[in-house]
């Protein structure tokens, strides 16, 4: 491993910070705009870091910077130490919570819960940045395990031993239709199998819970169409009375209130679930990490979902 403790190296926290930024987004122009720095200043800082380490950390391919094998190992070996140094630096600042946090959430949480939580957190902690992504639950587990994100919010339980899982809220799935007449009856779920079912893609926590709740009869259900965007699903349901879907009630609350969509009453099936916050068991818990985790958990508890 490169010796970064060499007296003549004098690697700065700023150089390291820019390096970690570029590991996740190699577009210097975008980074310059985000940080309000010139592209040349960023390029000089990275070249200075590479000169001190006596090895290139990126491959220059056209106008792109591609993290190379030495850059990947350098990040792996130094990132947690960098976070600890930043945390120590922040102890001497009036505002101790600062820095960048990377999170990912499943579709339901990401579209309907997390945005307001992030907005309120940034309002309270202006020296922070939250980089948010939306993925299905299985992909979020992989991102947390690989260290690509700091915190994940998922809609399904995970048995991964290297994850810490904290329950943050309860949720209820419902079957919805654009046909008001169906909402006036009570059904066993298999009585609805002849309808055109619209479900989320494989890997979705919502889809996983629904199919697991069906048990052995799930193999009898024909999925007519998969969707990734809720607005797509809502439009299809509203325009096709023979179509059904199963989603979190929070997704269609407004449409239910306006009677654009309708909840179907079901017998003998439970569609309750827990929502979880997950992070790696070896994750370094910076002041920012601790502050956001506590803030998010308190806000989730205030949601009636």
Please render the helix and strand layout as text:
Layout lengths: L12 H12 L3 H8 L3 H15 L4 E4 L2 E4 L1 H22 L8 E7 L1 H6 L1 H11 L3 E7 L2 H9 L5 E4 L8 E15 L8 E3 L7 E5 L4 H10 L8 E5 L2 H10 L3 E6 L4 H5 L4 E2 L1 E3 L4 E9 L6 H16 L3
Helix pairs in contact: 1-3, 1-4, 6-11
Describe the fold and architecture:
With 305 residues, this protein is of the alpha/beta class. It has three domains: 13-90, Arc Repressor Mutant, subunit A (Orthogonal Bundle); 99-169 and 274-302, Periplasmic binding protein-like II (D-Maltodextrin-Binding Protein, domain 2, 3-Layer(aba) Sandwich), CATH 3.40.190.10; 171-271, D-Maltodextrin-Binding Protein, domain 2. It contains eleven helices and 13 strands. Helix 1 packs across helix 3 (39-53) and helix 6 (114-124) crosses helix 11. The radius of gyration is 23 Å and the shape is elongated. The model is unreliable at 1-7 (pLDDT under 50).
Secondary structure: number of strands: 13
What percent of residues are in strands? 15-25%
And the CATH topology of the largest domain?
A: D-Maltodextrin-Binding Protein, domain 2
User: Pairing-aware structural class of the strands and helices?
Assistant: alpha/beta
Alpha plus pi helix count: 11
Sheet with the most strands, sense and barrel status: 9 strands, mixed
Order of helices and strands: HHHEEHEHHEHEEEEHEHEHEEEH
When the domains are counted, the total is 3
Helical content stands at 40-55%
First-last Cα distance: 49 Å
Low-confidence residue ranges: 1-7
Task: Label the CATH architecture of the largest domain.
Answer: 3-Layer(aba) Sandwich
Shape: elongated
CATH class call of the largest domain:
Alpha Beta
CATH superfamily of the largest domain: Periplasmic binding protein-like II
Supply Rg: 23 Å
Report the mean per-residue pLDDT as an integer. Answer: 88
**Oligomeric category:** single chain
